[in-house]
Amino acid sequence: MQIFLSVLVLLSFFNPYHRWRALVDAExxxxxxxxxxxxxLASVIPVIWGIExxxxxxxxxxxxxxxxxCWVALKGSYGQRLRILAGGIILTLLxxxxxxxxxxxxxxxxxxxxxxxxxxSLFRNLGDRGSGLALSVYIMFLVANxxxxxxxxxxxxxxxxxxxxxxxxxxxxxxxxxFLPEQQAYRRSISAIxxxxxxxxxxxxxxxDGKNIRNSNRNIYQAEKAVRAAIDASLIIHSRxxxxxxxxxxxxxxxxxxxxxxxxALVAASTVAIWDELSLLPFREMEPGLxxxxxxxxxxxxxxxxxxxxxxxxxxNEDELLMRDALQDFRRQLSLLEEFETKGKSDLxxxxxxxxxxxxxxxxxxxxxxxxxxxxxxQRVFRAYPVLKTIYVLHPRHLFSSxxxxxxxxxxxxxxxxxxxxxxxxxxxxxxxWHIDHGYWLSFTVLIVLQPYFIATLRKGVDRIIGTxxxxxxxxxxxxxxxxxxxxxxxxxxxxxxxxxxFRLKYRxxxxxxxxxxxxxxxxxxxxxxxLILIRAGATLGGAFIAIIAGFLLLPNWDxxxxxxxxxxxxxxxxxxxxxSFEKGNWQAGWTNSKRQAERSNSNAYDSFTRALEEPGGxxxxxxxxxxxxxxxxxITRELNxxxxxxxxxxVPQPAADVETRDLILACATQFQSLIQDSLPLDADxxxxxxxxQLPSGLPSLNEAQKHSLNRILSELRFLHQNVLExxxxxxxxxxxxxxxxF
Length: 743
What we know:
Methane Monooxygenase Hydroxylase, Chain G, domain 1, disordered N terminus, 5 domains, about 0% strand, about 750 residues, mainly alpha, globular
């Protein structure tokens, strides 16, 4: 009996079922393990084939090619994934050939590295997939260049094995894709928005139960940024919005999912509006009963968002039942808040009513999202894409579109690409001139470590050094074990899975497994060299040192110099958002695009401000004024969002706006224009075209909530104008504590 109880206690401690469920849910949300398994099969099977057939070097080339292309994240629809695979194979062949033919020329290697590193840096313009392509191009060029080969049959065999590796990886990818539901990638991107929204709600609700300290404005803003990042990630891959698909019968499922994505974004925006109302309530003076009602409402809203995220991924009947139960609880908590009567605090009632109104809208949007998902039917990929449609997804227009995005240069991108190219060429020249064994790790580390910003480069360099040295030491110990134990093959498999799994979680751990994987891969056909691990560790240290020095001295992008221009950009984007809101006749069509542009500019300025504080020298003067400038603009954007959220709820055409409303809009416009003109001295090089706002004669009337938001905008603009006058004053050297109320 005691043994049985001990086993139960042990099982309850490890809780294997819940751990397994958590792992399955995480995999459904972001398929890292399946990606890692595909990486492991792509690299291990060719190695085993090479050993068994007596061609270990050929197996390594096949494995290296397959592994490099496998680093490219397969996101999006089936057609987008096909284009990624085809592009990866072509680029791998091209740059492997370039590296091979220049391998015996010092000048050719250095010059080609200059161009390859520049191009690899530009691949970052293509998002997550571009980073994988950059890594694939860079590694294949480096390795092919590091191992000279003669023209003729040897070169042909190498290119054949590289092509074989690309085709082998493509085969694994196709097998993993064909049986997936057609719209799974789209649903996964929307699920990410709901999960980010749930996290935002949790951050806002924290502390309202009286058991914890409430979250800071900074933490809540970080959660709000995560929602926006999830929306942007979905739009990059699934670009057409709901209003662009309306009326297209052939796009039925995509239209419904686009509507669901819009609902998720609006719920997040409404949540921020609820936070604005909560921030106006006197927390310490409130009745405990009202605080608990508000907390219960937010907690129920969070659970509903989480259930919606799970339902989008699984579409199981049990998850739909749980979602309906969560909606019912949300509805019950909303009713309890609406029925609550405050005692002696009549000034709290308008705020609680406004919160209940916004929560009710969230409830309706969540219900609609579930109904849209239930009405969406999907086929498996192999049924949804006939041969002709599969061929069409490789249409050249997609290539032209990718090239246009690839070469969308600005000064920031060009400086980063040039810096990377010069540093990588320098590293290549060093190891080629002194004939350093496995010296290509020097150049490889430069590309991995060097980031667009100095602080990010420094952090990446530290992580890379720690992970590489640790991985090299462990790899060196493992390759001393007897070959009959097959430790190399086993660790090659495990490290391939682990480096993908930890890539998004902790780069330091991922770097450890990347190094271990490469040590295992290149030790299959080579004689054991006791100094090899030390050489690789030294090359990594040298590459990280070159990257950090290049980031500091070579065409650096200092945020303290870029921040003024970003401040003007966020002000300009808010002005454009304001104009769009009141100049359009049908002013609701596509308003979320203006919203995203304004919010993205706000985020860029905030991130630049944060990085500038950490830079050598930092923002030693007027940093509080910069902070206030950003926070005022963020609040202006939120008030414009609130105006549009109110407009979304109007079901019938509204009469024309009265004279008072038009005067209020024009007062905001006048203040905006004066503010922009006085802000121009912040950055003399910033080009700004300021147009006059033209209100349409049929501008619809605004309700009281919208007028209240307009008054808030006018107030924020006046405070911001005063802040700008102090910031642009020649004697503005304020280093006083920040006095802004925050976001």
